[in-house]
Amino acid sequence: MSLHRRQFLQTSSFAIGASVLPSTWLAQLLLPAGEMKILRNNVGIFTERGGTIAWMIDKEGLIVVDTQFPDTAPHLIEAIRKQSDRRIDLLVNTHHHGDHSGGNIAFKDIVNRVVAHKNSRANQERVAIANKAEDKQLYPDTTFDTTWSQKVGAETLSMHYFGPGHTNGDSFVHFENANVVHCGDLMFNRRFPFVDKTSGASVSNWIEALGKARKTFSKDTLFVFGHSADGIPVTGTEQDLAAMQNYLSKLLKFVKKEIKAGKTKEQLAEAKLQSIPGAEEWKGQGIERSVNAAFDELMEGKK
Ligand SMILES: [Zn+2]
Ligand SMILES: [Zn+2]
After folding, report:
1. Rounded to the nearest whole angstrom, what is the distance from the C-alpha of residue 185 to the centroid of ligand 2?
2. pLDDT in tens, 28-42
3. Which residues neighbour 259 within 8 Å (Cβ) at sequence distance 6 or greater?
4. Considering every ligand atom, which ligand is closest to the CA of 225?
5. Of 90, 92, 150, which Cα lies nearest the Cα of 116?
6. What is residue 72's DSSP assignment?
7. 3-class DSSP state for residue 88?
8. 79 within 8 A of 53, measured Cβ to Cβ
9. How far is the CA of 226 from the centre of ligand 1 (A)?
10. What pLDDT was estimated at residue 252?
11. CB 245 within 8 A of CB 286
């Protein structure tokens, strides 16, 4: 649903008079049911809540990359069903986090193959066991180490793993013909990223991974990002990957300097930072997640 339509519905429901509407109906009117947007060829994105989903729909193939949550994934399936009633040929997870793989379960009986990096699958399983949520998972049945590829309909989908970044299991997912790449959470566009140290994240290799992606793909590649700051697009170019590299580099540089100056993690938290010097475009909530992760990583290197 577009912002315009959502605003219209909100406005009109109030115009009708909220008091005459049953509250559940009102809640449904106000609830966004997600937005489908075509990018290139037959490839597009779906956004509602959680990580951005990418999809490919043609006569002979259906691909879905990431699934958000169990309550939003059915909205995507509903939207796909308006265009195609075939089984989903391929479901891909960029990584294991619940806002990207939590909705897998909604595809349980309608998907032929589920693919992710081997570490992503291991992380999904580990977290599900810890949370006693194994019955709510649909795990990847196919995993890979460095690259993986499959032809689906007229499209060829390939996956690339460049080592740890946001977690230790993040893939870049390339729709080769459309030349669209889903970066998963290796890209937080102008928004402070989550750095999941408990799942093997590495800030320094994240910078390398983005560099490898810039070399592997092209100036013409359209990139899809896991998340973005409010009002900032979830798609972009190689320039945005370079900007993210700069953010992570400036983060490491800043924290290194603070450690040298004798600052503790607690003192850095008390400083109530608003941004990282040299990467002021990155803003929002959660700067401490970046700073803490960089701090731990740099101290780890000193042991
Ligand atoms: Zn995410
Ligand atoms: Zn994530």
Report:
1. 5
2. 555 557 999 999 999
3. 295, 298, 299
4. 1
5. 92
6. T
7. strand
8. no
9. 6
10. 98
11. no
Among candidate residues 276, 203, 192, 190, the one with its CA nearest the CA of residue 234: 190
Q: What is the pLDDT of residue 262?
A: 97
pLDDT for 302 equals: 75
19 CA → ligand 1 middle, Å: 37
Distance 94 CA to ligand 2 centre (A): 9
Going from the C-alpha of 300 to that of each of 78, 105, 131, 202, 294, the distances in angstroms are 47, 37, 28, 11, 10
As given in the structure block, the two tokens for residue 299 are 């101290």
Strand locations in the chain (E): 35-40, 43-47, 53-58, 61-65, 90-92, 114-117, 142-144, 147-152, 155-160, 172-175, 180-182, 188-189, 222-224, 227-228, 235-236
CA pair distance 228, 48, nearest whole angstrom: 13
How far is ligand 2, taken at its centre, from the CA of residue 194, in Å? 7
How much distance in Å is there from the Cα of 134 to the middle of ligand 1?
A: 20
| Amino acid 187: pLDDT | 98
> How many A from CA of 256 to the centre of ligand 1?
27
Rg of the chain over all Cα atoms, to the nearest angstrom: 20
SS3 155: strand
**Cα-based distances in Å from 284 to 74, 224, 229, 276:** 29, 20, 7, 12
- Spatial contact of 187 and 211, defined as CB atoms under 8 Å apart: no
Spacing, Cα 11 to ligand 1 middle (Å): 31
Residues of the chain with pLDDT below 70 are 1-32, 303
Distance from residue 230's CA to the centre of ligand 1 (Å): 15
Please check whether residue 244 is in contact with residue 207, taking contact to mean a CB–CB distance below 8 angstroms: no
Domains along the chain with CATH numbers:
1-32 (no CATH), 35-302 (3.60.15.10)
What pTM was computed for the model?
0.89
Which tokens is 2 given? Answer: 């577009």
